[in-house]
Write a structure and sequence with these properties.
Strand content: under 5%
Number of helices: 7
Radius of gyration: 19 Å
Oligomer: single chain
Number of strands: 0
Helix content: over 70%
Distance between the termini: 29 Å
Number of domains: 1
Structural class: mainly alpha
Order of helices and strands: HHHHHHH
Shape: elongated
Length: 194
């Protein structure tokens, strides 16, 4: 199962590039569509970066591409379905992370500490190419949970439990968001190439 997910994740950018980017590089009059495809690619990367709302950027890219195509292949129905997938994927990531963090009796201040810690960690380690922002956001979020829970409870064991549950919530939330982002991209590629 894991190998299938890896092959899909690795194949998606190649399919997007060969089917959608290459034809528009030879025809520069469709710059809006090229920008849309680039935004879809950036949105896909954004699924893994907590500071960039990947599904939203994917949807905006699909909208730009549809505008450039004058809604011939990707119409409003497809965009509405993609919007529903976007809201579901992004929302379930936030809800899963918050739910699993709160399950260990963490407060909403703890969730806020995770968000602030994740943003600070992502920014601080953004100088490391590719993985810096991702690792920084995860480490910063865990440290944010740990700091708030230590201040709140003054005991290490519950603070560590909250940090563990936050990390598990992040992983599951990212997996769900990745699934919905891949569904959005697959729907877009299917309609744009038909």
């Amino acid at each position: 199962m894991r190998h299938a997910v890896y092959s899909i994740v690795l194949a998606a950018p190649c399919v997007i590039y060969s089917r959608l980017v290459l034809p528009f590089l030879t025809d520069p009059q469709n710059a809006i569509q090229t920008l849309g495809v680039l935004l879809i690619a950036v949105g896909f990367v954004g699924v893994f970066l907590p500071v960039l709302p990947g599904p939203i950027v994917i949807w905006v890219g699909a909208l730009l591409w549809a505008i450039g195509d004058q809604f011939q292949r990707v119409g409003w129905v497809v965009l509405i379905v993609m919007a529903a997938l976007m809201v579901t994927g992004w929302g379930s990531n936030l809800l899963l992370t918050g739910y699993l963090t709160r399950r260990s009796s963490a407060s909403w201040q703890t969730v806020l500490g995770a968000i602030v810690g994740g943003i600070v960690g992502g920014v601080l380690l953004s100088g490391i190419p590719v993985v810096g922002s991702i690792a920084g956001a995860v480490v910063g979020g865990v440290l944010g949970v740990l700091a708030v829970e230590l201040l709140r409870r003054r005991r290490l064991a519950p603070a560590l439990r909250s940090s563990r549950d936050y990390l598990i919530g992040c992983v599951f939330g990212q997996m769900v968001e990745l699934f919905f982002a891949l569904m959005m991209i697959a729907l877009f590629v299917w309609r744009a190439t038909s």
